[in-house]
Amino acid sequence: MGFLKVEDLKVHFPIKGGLFGRTLGHVKAVDGVSFSLDKGKTYGLVGESGSGKSTTGRAIIGLNHITDGKIFFEDNEITATARKAKSDIRKDIQMIFQDPYSSLNPKKRVLDIVAEPLRNFESLSRKEERIRVQELLELVGLSPESILKYPHEFSGGQRQRIGIARAVALKPKLIIADEPVSALDVSVQAQVLNFMKEIQGELDLTYLFISHDLGVIKHMCDHIGIMYKGRFVEEGTAKEIFNDPQHIYTKRLVAAIPDIDPRKREEMKQFRQEVNTEYEQAYNDYFNEEGLAYSLKPISDTHLVALPEKG
Amino acid sequence: MWKFSVRRIMIMIPQLFVLSVLIFVLAKMMPGDALSGQIDPNIDPARIEEIRQEMGWYDPWHEQYARWIGGVIQWDFGQSFRFKMPVTELMGQRIENSFWLSLVTLIFTYLIAIPLGITSGRYNDTLRDSLITGYSYLGFATPIFIFALVMLWVFGFQLGWFPTSGSVTPGLVPGTFDYFVSKVYHLILPALSMALITTYSTIQYLRNEIIDTKQKDFILLARAKGASESRVYNRHIFRNSLLPIAAFFGFEITTLIGGSIFIENIFGYPGMGQLLIESISLRDYSVVTATTLLFGMAAVLGALLSDIILSIVDPRIRIK
Amino acid sequence: MAANSASVENVDVKKKEIKSPSGLSVIGRELIKDKIALISLIFLILVVAFVYGISFVLDQEEIVKVDLFSIYEPPGEEFILGTDYGGRDVFGQLIIGTRNSLSIAFLVTIMTGLIGVVYGLLSGYFGGHVDNIMMRILDFFLILPFTMIVIAFVAIVPKYSIWTFSLIMTAFLWMGIARLIRSKALQEKELDYIHAAKTLGTSNLKIVFKHILPNVSSLIIVTMTLNLASNIGLESGLSFLGFGFPESTPSLGTLLSYARNPQTLEFRWWIWVPASLMILFLMLAVNNVGVALRRASDARQRRG
Q1: Which of A15-24, B23-32, B210-219, C111-120 is the least confident region?
Q2: How does it sit in the membrane (chain C) (predicted)?
Q3: What is residue A130's predicted lDDT score, i.e. its pLDDT?
């Protein structure tokens, strides 16, 4: 049934040291993560920096090696194929990067940047290629005349649109968006987010949306997974996570979302303090000796929480 | 630190091994051997063949190598065919000469470079600084052999202030005071010629280091606490910048070796550099291998020394 | 708040400007600002044009032919710069020598550049074990005392030409640029545009040569210019010691090597002084241009 299914994904990085550069231990960036995405929906991965959310996304698309676990895409296992340069998976899964400055090669023209995936997978004539690139630029709201410009002539928001044009060039089914707006100006963020929602319908895209910003996630996502130290602490629909958080860590995150209504300010402050106290008191119940979350347990069909193990 | 040193030494061992093989193979590949053209033409060619057999010329190369390296470990480099004496003996005096030349060159280099580097860094972007930077840049761009020739021409020949060849005036008895003075006198011009144009890296390093340190918080603090300018420089900045200079000493050895080949040949100074050129033109291959190997080993050991000192001075290097 | 982050973005744009592709105009601006570098460049162009131009007219055979009736002639009407011990015209040898020295230096610079860049890019990009092994090999080459090893090799090769000589020099000179390019490639490959290229299905080799290479090009140009200067010096040094070209193919170092004879050094300055000055000026000029280029490629040092 699943569109993208991740089973018990582990990404460990070795720590080298000692006389011969032996492996002394591992950093467990992602330590046993499972989730699945539905077609046409947006799945949000949330967590603080270092929680392993970006590593998860990069592992799926093949930028990080996978220590253990399996990934299925449309019922085919792609754990190994995603690592090859020329596989069909490349066409189906694409990525949008965080930093609009470093994600575009400064020495290339927009035409070459957006055409790069086309040149790798489709043999178009120069003219066809030009037309396709112009169409793509129009789609992302940039003037088709800008194909001969270089990236430094654009603003951050425009650059991110170029990055999106490049990602959708091959008509992918899944897009992994790794903090796509966190490097942008707040005023531009909303523009880019709304635009991403627009093309989602138009191109029938599925998003894996990675962010540390719960506000952005709330705006974008249907399903949400909360990560902490390489593990899931809670997973569920947006409604369940925001209205009925079960794990103490999620509760604190949700409580921290700023509220624009000034009349509720005192109330919110009070509430946050309560949650904080609860967090500190219950920390040892919700996390094991190493400070890691327990495994997920279902509390409804869609809602899973890493509740403490009894006994 | 120990871990780093041990690891660094273990990298060095294969380096030394490959170096020795390379040198041995090179020497073997040199056209002709020590016997060709050397022995009286009246001697029966069959006899020459016999000598070659005796010397093991036709043994497999790894056996020859093993024999050679076995000797080297016991400080025995075989016989020089041209000079008819053991290579070790031949090199003895010359190693000593080269050592003194290098030492005096190093002393001159630091005597020139350190004060200039400090001045340049302390008064950066002033006339003094640009003069010093200009000088060191000229030294960087000038090849050593041109500078040495000019020095020899001006101070040796035109002005006649210094001797133009040799390491000591002939006829003096070793051990006497005159002998010592003569030796020093012969050393000054070659050492100065090399030192004056190898100051670039030290001056530039010190300059940049001091300019960097100048703006660090602990210096600002020392000033704020009312320490005098000279105290700030002598006690704080200088100390911080000088240790790495000491560490680069090991790398200087490679520079010295390259330079000494030119300097010794130009000033007719009987050291290892001169011996190397001589023995290559004479096809005296046991001497060639010995000198090349010693130079190579000196360079490897110098790099090792610098790395270890640096790892003490700057712990960040150890991680690598 | 909004104004604030906008200005941050501006600073960012400025910082990235070095990476803009319009490097040529920046270089031009820098050269015009830096008068010394400009003069150096003009000097170099003139020397190169003159030396390569005139050698079509000049007969090398004629110049290197021994003429016993005009040995050690001081500069005069017949020979502008006098003659050497074989009665050969020093001025003619100087021109041919400059041409030969420059040719070698160019050749060695280009070959070391090619090897160094490819080696450095591959080592830096692939990293891990590949990088480890490649760097061990490089370290070994790096500790070899260059002058001696080249001398030893030159002594082995029985008959050598411009090509064999430059090959031998190249074999022991590619490491510096390789190390520089490697560390730059290590930085560059962590940037997202490389990750993007991977996710877009671009092959590793294409990434190395089409993405990383253009982004290290200014470093390559600067390093190769500075290398050119030092290669002129290295070649003339080796020829000076008698391990460069044979006398029949004069280089600047060959003329200098006559000064190893004390008589020539002391009394016949016209043989070795012009060649020394030529080497010195060439090296200074190339270095000046190289330093100006380095400034142009680094926004913090730029003057213009």
Answers
A1: A15-24
A2: Multi-pass membrane protein
A3: 92
Task: Please state the pTM of the whole predicted model.
Answer: 0.82
Domains assigned to chain B: 2-87 (no CATH), 90-313 (1.10.3720.10)
Give the end of a domain, one of A229, A248, A271.
A229
Domain that includes residue A246, residue range? 230-311
Sheet containing strand A22-37, strands side by side: A22-37, A4-17, A68-73, A76-77
Q: Is A62 left (phi over 0), alpha (psi -120 to 50) or beta?
A: left
Instruction: Specify the CATH number for the domain of residue A182.
Output: 3.40.50.300
| Per-residue pLDDT reduced to its tens digit, B150-195 | 898 888 888 888 887 777 777 777 778 888 888 888 888 999 999 9
Domain count, chain A: 2
- pLDDT at position B232 is 76
The per-residue b/e assignment along B238-260, b for 16 or more CB within 10 angstroms, e otherwise, is: bebbbebbebebbbbbbbbbbbb
Question: Is residue A111 located within the same domain as residue A212?
Answer: yes
Q: Is C29-297 CATH 3.40.50.1110?
A: no
Q: Is C159 on the interface with B (CB under 8 A)?
A: no
- Measured CA to CA, the distance from residue A49 to residue A212 in angstroms comes to 7
Q: Do A18 and B3 touch (CB under 8 A)?
A: yes
Q: Percent of chain A scored above 90 by pLDDT?
A: 18
End-of-domain residue from the set A199, A229, A259: A229
Nearest-5° angle of CA C148, CA C154, CA C159?
Answer: 175
Helix (H, G, I), strand (E, B) or coil at A18: coil
The complex's ipTM works out to 0.85
Residues A288 and A301 grouped into a single domain: yes
Mean pLDDT of A68-97: 81
Res A82: pLDDT = 63
Tell me the per-residue pLDDT of C33-67, one tens digit each, with 9 for 90 and over: 788 888 999 999 999 998 888 877 776 666 666 66
Place of tokens 């005392």: C145
Nearest CA to C256 out of B152, B140, B141 is that of B152
By CA distance, what is C213's nearest residue in A?
Answer: A107
Residue B211 and residue B121 in contact, taking contact as beta carbons nearer than 8 Å: yes
What's the average model confidence in pLDDT over B247-257?
A: 78
User: Tokens 């020497």 identify what position?
Assistant: B27
Domain extents in chain C: 29-297
pLDDT of residue A27: 84
Kindly state whether residues A161 and A275 are assigned to the same domain: no
Contacts of B26 in chain C (CB under 8 A): 152-153, 156
Average pLDDT estimate for C198-223: 90
Nearest alpha carbon to residue B66 among B11, B22, B15, B24: B24
Rounded Cα distance between C176 and C167, Å, is 16
How many beta-carbon contacts under 8 Å exist across B and C?
Answer: 104
> What beta strand segments (E) does chain B contain?
79-80, 85-86
Looking at the structure, do residues A73 and A202 belong to the same domain, yes or no? yes
Q: Tell the burial category of A74 from Cβ atoms under 10 Å away from its Cβ (0-12, 13-18, 19+).
A: middle
Yes or no: say if A291 and A229 are a contact pair by the CB < 8 Å rule. yes
The whole-angstrom distance between A255's CA and the closest CA on chain C is 24
Higher pLDDT, C9 or B288: B288
Nearest CA in chain A to C5: A185
Q: How confident is the model at residue C248 (pLDDT cuts 50, 70, 90)?
A: confident
Subunits touching C (CB < 8 Å, at least 3 pairs)? A, B
Are A221 and A283 within one domain?
no
- For residues B1 and A190, the model is more confident at A190
Are residues A121 and A254 both part of a single domain? no
B288 neighbourhood in chain C, CB within 8 Å: 152, 155
CB nearest A107 (choices: C1, C9, C21): C21
Q: Are residues A164 and A32 both part of a single domain?
A: yes
Nearest by Cα to B292 from C160, C235, C147: C147
Query: Based on the domain organization, do A139 and A219 belong to the same domain?
Result: yes
